[in-house]
Amino acid sequence: MQISTKFTIAIHMLVAIDYFGDQETVNSASLADSIGSNPVIIRNLMSELKHAGLIDTKRGPGGIKLLKPLDQITFYDVYLAVEKNKDELFNFHEHVNLNCPVGRNIHQALSDKLLKIQRNFEDDLKRQTVGDVEKDVVKAIDAK
């Protein structure tokens, strides 16, 4: 199971949009600078976050705005917005030996357990908000 870096980059983006939004116009270049990434990657993620209803973007001096407070945006919202291979976290190997008793039965024995793990993972994502991350970031900034 692997979640792409798009997930953590998207959370970084949302926190930065909120943190800097009152002080300056936030755009893909400023986000790319904060993240250490290419602005094209940031713009692609912005498109996904916009499509999910989490941000709004305006060309020019309008910048990027959040459409919800961070404490109302869950990790699951971000996960749904940016992860493309989320239907099944676990994938089975395809070419088992059906003549082998283990090979013949492994998928059936394993699938319900993996589905339960995936549901628990998604439930955990629903309990965490981007606002929780922002509070920790601000606390770390203020401590210095």
UniProtKB/TrEMBL annotation:
InterPro entries to which the protein is assigned, alphabetical: Tscrpt_reg_Rrf2 (IPR000944), WH-like_DNA-bd_sf (IPR036388), WH_DNA-bd_sf (IPR036390)
GO molecular function annotation: DNA-binding transcription factor activity
Gene3D superfamilies in the cross-refs: Winged helix-like DNA-binding domain superfamily/Winged helix DNA-binding domain
Gene Ontology CC: one annotated term: cytosol
Origin: domain of life: Bacteria
Entries under PROSITE patterns matching the protein: HTH_RRF2_2
Name of a matching Pfam family: Rrf2
Protein name: Rrf2 family transcriptional regulator
Species of provenance: Limosilactobacillus mucosae (Lactobacillus mucosae)
